[in-house]
Specification:
101 residues, 3 strands, 16% strand, extended, binds zinc ion
Length: 101
C-alpha cells in the first residue's frame, strides 16, 4: 500500500486514537476501510531529538487491541522464535505437506 500524505485531519484523528498529541508523522502507511489512519510512518528522531526507532506505528484502537490480544497469547514469542536463526532449520522442516483431495 502506498504512503499517503498526512493531512491536518489525519493528525487530529491519530491524536484522538492515541489519546495524546500525535508527533512527527511523516505519512499514513495504511488506512482503515473508513479512511481513518491505521498505521502511520514516523520520523527516526522526534522533533526534540529523541530517537524513535519505530518506523511504522499502529494507531487504530481496534487494531492495537487485537494485536495486544495476540501478543498476550504468546504469539509474539512464537514468531520471534520461528524467525530467529536458531529456528531456521526447524522452520523449513516443520511445514507439513498439504494433503491433496
Ligand atoms: Zn475505521
Amino acid at each position: 500500500m502506498p504512503l499517503t500524505h498526512a493531512t491536518e485531519l489525519d493528525v487530529q484523528v491519530v491524536s484522538r486514537q492515541l489519546g495524546r498529541p500525535a508527533r512527527d508523522i511523516v505519512a499514513i502507511a495504511a488506512r482503515c476501510v473508513c479512511g481513518n489512519p491505521l498505521v502511520v510512518q514516523t520520523k527516526p528522531r522526534l522533533a526534540d531529538g529523541t530517537p524513535f526507532p519505530t518506523l511504522y506505528y499502529l494507531t487504530h484502537p481496534a487494531a492495537t487491541a487485537a494485536i495486544s490480544t495476540l501478543e498476550a497469547s504468546g504469539l509474539k514469542e512464537v514468531w520471534s522464535f520461528m524467525y530467529s536463526p536458531v529456528a531456521r532449520p526447524v522452520r523449513f522442516r516443520a511445514a507439513p505437506a498439504k494433503k491433496r483431495i
